[in-house]
Amino acid sequence: METILLIERDDNQRLLYEKALIDEGYKVIPTKTARESLLVLRTNTPDVVVLDIMVPDMDGSELLGRLIAVEKKVPIIIHTAYKGFSYRFMSSAAEAFVLKSTDLTELKNRIRENIKMAHLKYNYVNN
To answer: What is the pTM of this model?
Structure first.
């Protein structure tokens, strides 16, 4: 079972995304803050990170950098309601940028694609 580290500041959205992703068959580790997320990464290696860049305790750019520093191989999907941030973050190391929507199809597709690519890279390197 693939694991998703879900970093979402809004309690209702976090619960909605968590339930939807569990229904897709994923194990979800939900967090609200940068601090929580970084602590989780010390003891867990998720298959993908879904990052709300507006966390309450750290700038999203800084958190993205710290996540990459801790676990370079885990794909990160930036998930935000702020379209203007796409230019700021797409030049970074994030694999995808998804605008928040009531329709979670795009988010689910990006998660699936990034997990598949990560597995292909792993198998290529280890064979």
So the answer is: 0.90
